[in-house]
Structure to design on (512 residues):
């Protein structure tokens, strides 16, 4: 499978109707199959930025370019946005259903993805029977079942406990190894950002803008032992210091 | 586990029933109330056996009026909600009137409909329909409109058509609301048709429960009047039970309200 597209944002600005400027002149690039983390105070326009990149909403000015033919984006939200009346399998198959793919075919694909994210035992469970971590796995499977080449994650693990969150981070990197999508990952956790990404974008408030970009040279592959390494701890400490410095100035 | 859960839910209402009957007798004999005003429970029971065939026929007629009106209110109400959610202009234009019409007292509705459509089953059914229609529309519309923003956005991301958004997202989301409205409509359908029968009177010489209540009152068969009233309650209860049963079938797997036994 080819790597996800390279994406470049050039002077992206966004204003909703005649409200204040939400995003001001954002320029940054993601190379093929890169994972970029975005951190910043709440309300600085991170979700809006992801929506712009997914072309869910139009930019007020500026442009988004990408390599390759088409971008096929998938979104993963903090709230897993599962349909409460559909079981795990049907939830994973929602995008396929919306595309009009036949029932047997879409449930087939869905069960394959349920398997990949470790949900084989709960295929017939309904969302209210699932833990937060399992819901998020359904959401991940639903997104990946569409073979996206661009993944937009909006604080996906923010509501989960640390252990579940770490596990999902590791799974995400494993899945990325297989499919190499390009990803933008919004998070409040510097640890998570350091673990997952090649670069960390720090955003500023009022209007939202890029305050700093941290290159993260922590080598791949990364797995659960990476977190125990001194190097990892150092990167986290450095990134945290940088974040505080940028946001207090 | 089911047994432990359900047994107090049968015993306790039974106990309340027994207490009510004891009170009834106590009040009647303490103040020596005349049978024309407050008959004893056992007299009402005898009235049941005396008037058995009349009451059964009256119940059937009321059932026809309430049932057809109720069905119409559910079907037309649901369709109306789909139309209202699909067109903002229609919603803005019509919805305030739907809220407004809900405020008309049942008795006024009944009087007006009988003037418009003459006495008979058709008027009773129309009253039952009108009275159930507005709660069905009001609740269903609320359910159709209250889809969480995240789910809507997810559907848009995966390029759902407006029809898909309506039938795969809004309609299932509205089901619990729809059943709430339907439950109200079921109760009101019986109350509405009995009220209607009091105005609309008999059809071909045989009237529904409301009509019989009028007759018993004029004949001073007070125990039978109480019996007929009791049957009205029973009929309403059956209507609501059917709705709750259908609700539990439809929402069995996913909705909290079917688990905790709130109803
Ligand atoms: N659809 C919208 N209409 C108007 N304003 C919006 C809309 N979406 C977001 N905003 C505004 O944009 C700003 C940034 O929001 P958001 O992107 O959600 O921030 P973040 O995700 O960083 O917390 C907020 O001030 C918010 O009020
Ligand atoms: Mg946000």
């Amino acid at each position: 499978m080819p790597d996800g597209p390279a994406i470049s944002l050039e002077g992206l600005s966004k204003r909703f109707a005649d409200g204040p400027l939400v995003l001001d002149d954002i320029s940054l690039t993601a190379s093929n199959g890169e994972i970029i983390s975005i951190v910043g105070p709440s309300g600085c326009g991170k979700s809006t930025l992801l929506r712009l990149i997914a072309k869910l909403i139009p930019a007020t000015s500026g442009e988004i370019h990408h390599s390759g033919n088409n971008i096929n984006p998938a979104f993963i939200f903090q709230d897993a946005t599962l349909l409460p009346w559909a079981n795990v399998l049907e939830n994973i198959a929602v995008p396929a259903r919306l595309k009009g793919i036949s029932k047997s075919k879409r449930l087939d694909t869905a069960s394959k993805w349920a398997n990949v994210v470790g949900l084989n035992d709960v295929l017939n469970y309904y969302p209210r029977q699932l833990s937060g971590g399992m819901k998020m796995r359904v959401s991940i499977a639903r997104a990946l079942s569409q073979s996206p080449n661009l993944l937009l994650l909006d604080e996906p693990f923010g509501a989960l406990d640390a252990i579940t969150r770490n596990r999902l981070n590791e799974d995400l990197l494993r899945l990325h190894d297989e499919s190499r999508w390009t990803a933008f990952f919004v998070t409040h956790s510097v640890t998570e950002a350091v673990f997952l990404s090649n670069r960390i974008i720090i955003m500023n408030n009022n209007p939202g803008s890029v305050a700093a970009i941290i290159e993260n040279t922590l080598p791949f592959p990364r797995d659960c032992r990476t977190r125990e390494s001194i190097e990892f701890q150092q990167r986290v400490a450095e990134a945290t210091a940088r974040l505080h410095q940028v946001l207090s100035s | 586990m089911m047994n432990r859960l359900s047994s107090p839910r049968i015993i306790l209402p039974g106990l309340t029933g027994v207490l009510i009957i004891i009170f009834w007798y106590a009040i009647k004999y303490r103040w020596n109330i005349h049978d024309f005003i407050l008959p004893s429970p056992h007299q009402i029971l005898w009235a049941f056996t005396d008037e058995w065939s009349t009451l059964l026929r009256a119940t059937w007629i009321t059932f026809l009026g309430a049932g057809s009106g109720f069905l119409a209110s559910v079907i037309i109400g649901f369709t109306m909600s789909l139309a209202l959610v699909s067109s903002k202009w229609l919603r803005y234009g019509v919805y305030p009137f739907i809220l407004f019409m809900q405020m008309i007292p049942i008795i006024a509705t009944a009087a007006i409909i009988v003037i418009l459509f003459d006495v008979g089953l058709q008027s009773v059914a129309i009253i039952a329909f009108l009275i159930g229609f507005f709660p069905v529309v009001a609740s269903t519309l609320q359910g159709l409109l209250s889809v969480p923003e995240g789910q809507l956005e997810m559907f848009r991301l995966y390029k759902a058509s407006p029809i898909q958004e309506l039938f795969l997202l809004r309609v299932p989301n509205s089901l619990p609301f729809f059943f709430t409205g339907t439950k109200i409509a079921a109760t009101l359908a019986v109350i509405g048709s009995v009220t209607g029968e009091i105005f609309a009177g008999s059809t071909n010489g045989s009237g529904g429960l409301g009509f019989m209540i009028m007759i018993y009152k004029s004949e001073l068969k007070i125990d039978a009047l109480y019996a007929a009233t009791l049957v009205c309650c029973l009929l309403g209860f059956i209507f609501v039970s059917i709705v709750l049963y259908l609700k539990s079938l439809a929402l069995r797997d996913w909705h909290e309200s079917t688990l905790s036994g709130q109803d």
